[in-house]
Inverse folding.
């Protein structure tokens, strides 16, 4: 029994939804998203709510039920509110600047890393005095935003001893003790 799949998705004011066979188009104040969904899933619009139903109780239909509902809910939230993620660069000399969609990262390597961002993602960088540099990413597409944020993080993952690297804001890292002095 999919509890997520059964939950109806409320349609906020100003969001327009069009169904064409198994393609859904969601249009809102921030933009438009389109996705092709699995043809087995049945989608209904009723009383300003989207309801996703599955045809059978097969295991794959149960899995698709919750997935389809989550994808549609993320599309609706994306075009009405948008998604935002913040990444923090921890380490001496680590810097991040951007010129348009080109992110220039200095991460302790012998060279700068230039990362071209897709046009659907808005990026800003900020460094306050006494604080670590931060990268702010905003988009209406949650899947693309997560993919880009993970790719940026993979350029220098946080290491477990000092915590140096690129981490998400609020992320708690598991730290290791390191070598301890030997006693004689």
């Amino acid at each position: 029994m999919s509890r997520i799949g059964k939950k109806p998705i409320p349609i906020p004011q100003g969001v327009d939804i069009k169904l064409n066979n198994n393609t859904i188009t969601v249009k809102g104040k921030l933009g438009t998203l389109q996705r092709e969904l699995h043809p087995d899933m049945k989608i209904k619009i009723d009383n300003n709510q989207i309801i996703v139903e599955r045809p059978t109780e097969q295991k794959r239909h149960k899995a698709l039920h919750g997935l389809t509902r989550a994808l549609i809910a993320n599309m609706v939230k994306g075009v009405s509110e948008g998604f935002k993620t913040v990444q923090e660069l921890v380490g001496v000399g680590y810097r991040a600047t951007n010129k348009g969609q080109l992110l220039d990262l200095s991460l302790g390597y012998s060279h700068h890393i230039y990362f071209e961002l897709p046009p659907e993602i808005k990026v800003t960088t900020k460094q306050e005095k006494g604080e670590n540099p931060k990268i702010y990413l905003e988009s209406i597409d949650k899947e693309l935003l997560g993919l880009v944020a993970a790719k940026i993080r993979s350029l220098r993952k946080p290491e477990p001893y000092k915590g140096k690297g690129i981490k998400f804001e609020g992320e708690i890292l598991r730290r290791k003790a390191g070598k301890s002095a030997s006693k004689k």
